[in-house]
Amino acid sequence: MPNELVTFRSWFSYLAEGRRGYLAAFAKIPPAELHRARGASFPSMLDIFEHSQGAYIYWITKCARDPLPSPPCETGKDPPLAEVVENETWLQEEVRRYLAGLPAEELDRRIAIPKGDPIAHACELPVRDILWHLVEEELQHRGELNALLWQIDVHAPVYDWIEWRHASGELHRSSPR
Q: Quick one: 4-168 is in which CATH superfamily?
């Protein structure tokens, strides 16, 4: 059975693969449709995706002992797809680098979070809880993006965890008996 750090690395690789799928789907959508306000958690599909990028940047920066470099593009409301893609490439490399260098004992290190955005009260969170929060945040917005894509008859890049583990070589199929 893998340790929790190995599990985190697997989950974040899986999430990165899924994010690449959403960007590929977005590239096939006309810009006006991609930028249209849809009454979801954030106005457009790109805004939702960029919010998820921001969550990664915020929380990984909180956890990392060394500061992350700045993203290549300063995006704002309703960013161009090309800038979101460029930031995603940078982001996934930074997340991979952070997790590759993270020792298991760091999962218990507590991070002071001040009262305010994104939490309504001051608290200290273990790194492990922050990483699990990022998994939950990603899955929440992935479901939201799936629904929005299906509403405009676009195939959502649904990535099944078990199938991904088979494809990545992390899980081997058994032989028929």
A: dinb family like domain (1.20.120.450)
